[in-house]
Amino acid sequence: RQTGQAFHGFPIPFIKPNSSNSISFSTSFVFAIITPGSGPPGHGLSFVIAPSMDFNRAFPSNYLGLFNTSNNGNSINRILAVEFDTVQAVELNDIDDNHVGIDLNGVVSIES
Asked: Which positions ≥6 away from 27 have C-beta within 8 Å?
């Protein structure tokens, strides 16, 4: 199984300087997820806001290269992800095999 990440070249502040007010932002992207002709399919992709670019201990597949069994759901992660999931993982409460989920600190979506 493989994982991969692409990061913005430098940190983006989400708090206005000299303030406790957050900065608003929006984004959009266009993508296609195509199942390979042979071999296992990928599990999707995610847009992530995280305090670190270190995902070396993350698992592939259901964990989308973001988390592992030890840190999944841990509030110390401080990670927000929008997942575009293509495989239903019943153990993670996925609603189906083709959904968008909002994830906080783990791959069990708080909203799908």
From this structure: 47
Largest separation between any pair of C-alpha atoms in the chain: 54
Whose CA is closest to 6, among 38, 39, 37, 31? 31
Looking at residue 111, the DSSP 8-state letter turns out to be B
Q: How far apart are CA 58 and CA 48, in angstroms?
A: 14
- Tell me the C-alpha distance between 79 and 40, whole Å: 27
In tens digits, the chain (112 residues) has pLDDT values of: 678 888 888 888 889 889 999 999 898 989 888 877 777 777 889 999 999 999 999 999 899 999 999 999 999 999 999 999 998 999 999 999 999 999 999 999 999 9
Distance (Å, rounded) from C-alpha 112 to C-alpha 104? 12
65 residue type, one letter? G
Q: The tokens 């495989």 sit on which residue?
A: 87
Q: Sign of the C-alpha dihedral, residues 96, 48, 15, 57?
A: positive
Domains by residue range for the chain, with CATH: 15-112 (2.60.120.200)
